[in-house]
Amino acid sequence: MDGQPRLDAETKVAEVDHKAELRLWLRLLTCTTLIEAEVRRRLRREFDETLPRFDLMAQLWRLDHGMTLGEVSKRMMVSAGNVTSLVDRLVKAGYVERRPSPHDRRSQLIRLSRYGREHFGRMAAAHEAWVAELLTDLGDKDIAATMERLAKVKASVSASIARGGRG
Amino acid sequence: MDGQPRLDAETKVAEVDHKAELRLWLRLLTCTTLIEAEVRRRLRREFDETLPRFDLMAQLWRLDHGMTLGEVSKRMMVSAGNVTSLVDRLVKAGYVERRPSPHDRRSQLIRLSRYGREHFGRMAAAHEAWVAELLTDLGDKDIAATMERLAKVKASVSASIARGGRG
To answer: CA nearest A55: which of A21, A26, A90, A97?
Structure first.
């Protein structure tokens, strides 16, 4: 705010408050973009993998009994069309397998194959180490304090969205 | 960490530390994804715009004298091909104009047209208000403290990347 023309109190409140929130959002976005770009680079370089494939396998990893395409699509916030073509390529590579749902034979469940679990397990371990390296200058207390701060951010955003965005 | 089997000290340090950093990264990603998805929804609903178009216009907004396609592509961390097709559509809509660079007639500068500046100005004001709404439960002190925490995150990530990822 230094070096800006002086504003009267009312304008100042309106202006300054919104700018502070915008700056916070931009900093949050910068942190995420930096980490995500580095993870993307390393997945490519060390595993010849893409981030969307990694994210999809991460979803399947958690649910060993399999998921429908619709469930995967919802969890990843990605369109069903995009998920279908990702899954097709992962099936072709041998990492993912399809089987009919035991509850509804018309729908298919997809899950990691044994080979896919081995592949993802190696990537997940590397990913965890990369993230630890990137955040290595933060001590335990820094991490705990940042977790708390971000919990407040998440709570505010979730509450606002739940109110239908009327603040 | 509650309810997990006891580990010896060495394993515990390695395991626990990495998990904490991974959890922090996932929380950061969750906050960003929530806000970004909401901004995307509202841009679509209220301005019939997409986030990549908004981001590109935001870059041009800052530099009134114009930028080359290469500069835009670098700043947005998006491939030149994607930027070209975005720009083509924005030119067609009348929001962006091309002119030869005064320094190098073979390269073109792109910038917002007057109509584009009006359009983006309205969106930017709305965007700032949306973000303020989403973060409305944070007081001034919360915002300042979160900014500081994220500055540490950003510094750690940047330093690690500068070291070539050798942590």
So the answer is: A90
Give the pTM: 0.84
Residue of A149, A158, A166 best to disrupt the B interface, most CBs of B under 10 A: A149
From B54's Cα to the closest Cα of chain A, the distance in A is 14
d(Cα A9, Cα A13) in Å, to the nearest integer? 6
**Domain boundaries A9-136, CATH class:** mainly alpha
* Contact status, residue B101 vs residue B68, Cβ threshold 8 Å: yes
pLDDT-based confidence at A4, cuts 50/70/90?
very low
pLDDT at site A75: 84
* Contact: B140, A17; criterion CB under 8 Å: yes
DSSP 8-state secondary structure symbol assigned to residue B95: S
B12-161: which CATH number, 1.10.230.10, 1.10.10.10, 2.40.30.10, 3.30.70.260? 1.10.10.10
Edge-to-edge strand list for the sheet holding A96-100: A67-68, A108-112, A96-100
SS3 B66: coil
How far is the C-alpha of B66 from the C-alpha of A85, rounded, in Å? 38
Q: What per-residue confidence (pLDDT) applies to A95?
A: 97
Closest CA relative to residue A84, chosen from A106, A52, A116: A52
Compute the nearest-CA separation of A103 from chain B (Å).
32
Residue B79 has what pLDDT?
Answer: 80
Strands B67-68 and B96-100: unpaired
A113 close to A95: Cβ distance less than 8 angstroms: yes
